[in-house]
Amino acid sequence: MRLVVGEAIVDLHPAETGDAGSADAYARRAGGAPANVAVGLSRLGDAPLFRTRLGEDGFGDFLAATLADEGVPADLVERDPDAPTGLAVVGRDAGGDRSFSLYLDGTASVGLRPGSVDDATLAGVDWVHIGGVLLAFEPARSATIDLLERVPDGTSVSFDPNARPGLGRGFDYGATLERVLPLVDVVVASGEDVRPAGFAGDPPELARSLVAAGAHTAVLTRGAAGAYGFATDDAPWGGAEADHGGFPVDAVDTTGAGDAFTAGAVTALSEGRPFADALAYANAVAAASTTAEGAMTALPDREAVEGLLAG
Ligand code: ADP
Q1: How far is the C-alpha of 181 from the C-alpha of 157, rounded, in Å?
Q2: Helices 33-43 & 58-69, crossing angle to 10 degrees?
Q3: Is 67's pLDDT higher than 80?
């Protein structure tokens, strides 16, 4: 059994015609990178436990129902009667790419407290995946670090460092990553995720810097050009370097491709596939996810991924 920790939030995005009837309207989608990873793992055949917090409101009901429909167990999905569900408002930046503005401070998502995943739960999982956004907020930052420090030997940890400086009050992204990376077996990121924390260079240079900061393995995604990964001898899968150029597909929406990639990487590595094969598998999951609209909705099942891998 695997465990995913992080936010499930509602993305409010400009409605496409037909979505809500008007081009001026917003429509809701289930989102949050860790929620996408949890659903991605489920669609690939093995649903994880998901430690997340939702408000006792309509958005929380919608997320809880979506997670249940996707086969994610409700055991660690907590409802907070005193705080609203987290939200993201999706816009377009000057380049036409989607931008996300997060409403998280004071929401149920960030109210995760130290000790709220108990040792018995941790003893029963063989993989823990942590989303980085909650590190910007207290008490979720302390809760996440507390949890990472209690992960038993032999349980692998993956981490998606997708926060930004200034996200939470007084949040120091670089200092937080320095604290977290030594507790991580594999960090999966795009350059855009880690450059704001002070890491520089191309994917191989970024990977080396992340490993020098303590992660046993670093995997850097680079859009349609696939991904690069570097693992030290201390990694659970042994020392390796791999470069995979991705799969050419007719991409219609790349939103959430990084989360699909993470779900693919966690699936392949936790199944014991060799590191280079795991990178190819993750690229296939991510490429398949770009061929449909949306992030969570576009996550592929195992059959679609195997089809792409078979060529
Ligand atoms: P993020 O979505 O986090 O910004 P990337 O843009 O690097 O991250 O994309 C993540 C992964 O999604 C890539 O490593 C690749 O496997 C896949 N991907 C992204 N865009 C495309 C595309 N146009 N065609 C095929 N695969 C893609």
Answers
A1: 10
A2: 20
A3: yes
Of 190, 228, 262, 279, the residue with max ligand 1 atoms within 8 A of its CB, to mutate for a pocket test, comes to 190
Range of the domain at 38: 2-310
Q: What is the CATH number of the domain that holds 306?
A: 3.40.1190.20
- Looking at the structure of the chain, the number of domains it has is 1
Ligand 1: residue of 90, 228, 252, 254 to mutate (most ligand atoms within 8 A of CB) is 254
**Pocket lining: 264 vs ligand 1, CB cutoff 6 Å:** no
Is residue 286 lining ligand 1, measured as CB closer than 6 Å?
yes
Grouping H, G, I as helix, E, B as strand and the rest as coil, residue 166 is: coil
Asked which of 3-17, 26-40, 62-76, 282-296 is least confident by mean pLDDT, the reply is 3-17
- Closest C-alpha to 12, from 25, 33, 29: 29
What per-residue confidence (pLDDT) applies to 95?
72
> What are the φ and ψ backbone dihedral angles of 189, each rounded to 5 degrees?
-150, 160
Its ipTM equals 0.99
List of E strands, 56-105? 77-80, 87-92, 98-103
pLDDT tens-digit profile of 200-254?
A: 999 999 999 999 999 999 999 999 999 999 999 999 999 999 999 999 999 999 9
pLDDT of residue 131 exceeding 80, the answer is: yes
Q: Tell which one of 187, 222, 261 to mutate to probe ligand 1, the residue whose CB is within 8 A of the most ligand atoms.
A: 261
Q: Is 228 in the pocket of ligand 1 (CB under 6 A)?
A: no
Residue 122 in tokens: 């941790």
Ligand 1 pocket, residue 60 CB under 6 Å? no
- The answer, yes or no, to whether any atom of ligand 1 lies below 6 A from the CB of 98, is no
